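Team,

Forwarding the record for the chain on the shared tracking sheet. I've put the sequence and predicted structure together so nobody has to dig through attachments.
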Amino acid sequence: MPHYFNLLSFFSHHQLTNLNQTLLSFLFVPASSIHIKHQNHTHTSQYDSMANASKQQKLLHNHHPLIPGLPDHIAQLCLSSVNPSLLFTICHSWRRLIYSPSFPPFLSLYAILSPPPQPPRPPHSPPHSIQFYNFDPISTTWKILPPPPPDPPLHHLLLRHPSFLSRNFPIQSISVAGKLILLAATTHNLYPALSRPLIFNPLSQTWTSGPTITTPRRWCALGACGGEVYVASGIGTQFSVDVARSLEKWDPKNGEWEKKRELKDGRFSREAIDAVGWKGKLCMVNVKGDAAKEGVVYDVDEDVWKEMPEGMLCGWRGPVAAMEEEVMYVVDEGKGVLSKYVAERDAWEEVMVSERLKGAEQMVARRGMVCVVSGGGGISMVDVVAAPPRLWVVDLPQGFQAVAVHILPRMPITDFSIHG
């Protein structure tokens, strides 16, 4: 079974030794005497919550103890330090455990999928609907997400139009604070499709809506930095210089949209682009691909726009993503070259070359993995920590191609008949 995330690789002998020591320490310490020190207070809330969760699991699933001789909530503490890919292979009770709401979630893929291009259809025929899927890297299975709310009607989101056969219309999404956020798209009449963010929470498996954006738009710059969402430029129902120069910020935790420092002009409303969060800044260019372009950098703390460094701009020849907002990667969509940015030299350093990376359209990066959506709608994973870097392809559900992909926590599973 391929390892889709380095955090899911089998853990080392050192980790096994630590696990054995942890198990032995719990075996010789009464559970009633175990406490956690936090802010100079002694409490057992974590253990109480785990104990309650384990009691509920026993009532629901009549399973054997996780570790014979240990209360389940203590056993869960021990097993939480073990890589879930190993737990999945050992026994059914541990397999159920890693998908339970009380167990620390591992990362998985979330993809916006659509049917492949088809022959032109009449102008007023309904567009093809997008679908939201989750890929479990441990069981290597795809699962469709719960359906979004009927308002807004996502079947009206436009990917292709008979009058624009040479291009796809963007559906702009982003992952922030462990959630998938859909924020900008186009309707069949070429208007902005979303007036407010549409948010999916993997842990609760629910959809919610965020606050109404001041001016709904499409073909904008979308990014996140420090857990906050930023939308810049774009086009509303018609072109407006004010909208094309605008920048707005939204805190998904509790905030409303807040206007920030404007761009100097409206040249960033030509395409849907990524504003890449990197070291407290948002970096973006006004044109995709290898064409001549302009680049700017927004300093989040200073609320000021600056010119993009020359070396960064020269190497920006395809989709870009920043891993944990610290290391920035780019795929040259024409050559299939994956590179990382070295700020000290203002230069891009080659990581690997692959034919599968040619035509790259979108990418994300997290925990040592770079995930790339290529021109044909395929998904490639690159382990940039391995030496040399390794690439493999994720097989998509039959009849679909990828529009966008994100890396987020796995969804909990309550129907364990599916996973044993």
